[in-house]
Amino acid sequence: MNTKRIYPFYFLILPVGIYTLLYFTPSLFSFYYALTDWNTYNEKMRFIGLDNFRDMLKDRALYWEYITHTFEFALSTTLLKNLLGLSLALLLNEGLRTKNVLRSIFYLPVTISPLIIGLIFSSVFDPSHGLINNFLGYIGLESWKHAWLVDVKFAMLSVVSVETWKFIGFNMIIYLAGLQTISRSYYEAASIDGSSKWQQLIHITLPLIMPAITINLILNLINGFKVFDLIFVLTKGGPGNTTEVLNTAVFREFSSGRYGSATAIGILLFLMTTLIALSTLSLLSRRSEVSE
């Protein structure tokens, strides 16, 4: 008896229809609006072709700054979240008695709203009464105290640290899932052959959890390029333009009533994110095939 059940094709009509209505159609319209002068100052919307993108090139220094900050944030948070998440996963994959409690504790920040986290860390980084500066003063490191969120040297670093703290647990869980699929017999055989822990990590663990590495890298890169809420709550893009990224630039253009220009910046971000994500996926897929 055939245990497989073939569902009718029309079961797809509703989900595909909802996806088309709420995502695909607005996305197509956004490409059109990026080619117009849609704004609050003119009654009629005119088609202007690539003028919005040409304006970005004219103000190249400013937009290059936005792009640079976006890349800095995405790449640094991706690297930190993966390194720390993998380290925690390796630690909690061992036979610790409290490993289940620790997993829950490290994953908890993922469930908290970015708005709430932003408000909490605005207080933590407060230069006068913040937890960090108070602690530094308590242990006698007065010279290390800074106005973390309004100092151009530390603003981006502060935002990156908060983003990393929030999502370490997410990366840890994915790496744990990958680690638990590896048979202990590989490590036992390697130990008999005299392999060190480092050699086992490089030649056994990392190649076998490559799917988990791929997932974490792609998701973290995409989320890094799309960042908005955390930066807006903590620094609003400041001080100056120090933490301004493409999504905060989109917000400012929309707030100023320049909808066509804002949509063009959003399209630029979409194309950039898609290109980086697909390139990374292709590179990791090739490395995975070579390792196999």
TrEMBL record:
The keyword Transmembrane applies. It holds the Pfam family BPD_transp_1. InterPro entries: ABC_transporter_permease, MetI-like, MetI-like_sf. The keyword Transport applies. Keywords: Cell membrane, Membrane, Transmembrane, Transmembrane helix, Transport. Its main location: membrane. It comes from the Bacteria. Residues 67-280 form the ABC transmembrane type-1 domain. The chain crosses the membrane at residues 7-35, 73-93, 105-125, 154-179, 200-222, 262-284. SUPFAM superfamilies: MetI-like (SSF161098). It is found in: Cell membrane. It is a multi-pass membrane protein. Belongs to the binding-protein-dependent transport system permease family. This is Sugar ABC transporter permease. It comes from Paenibacillus marchantiophytorum.
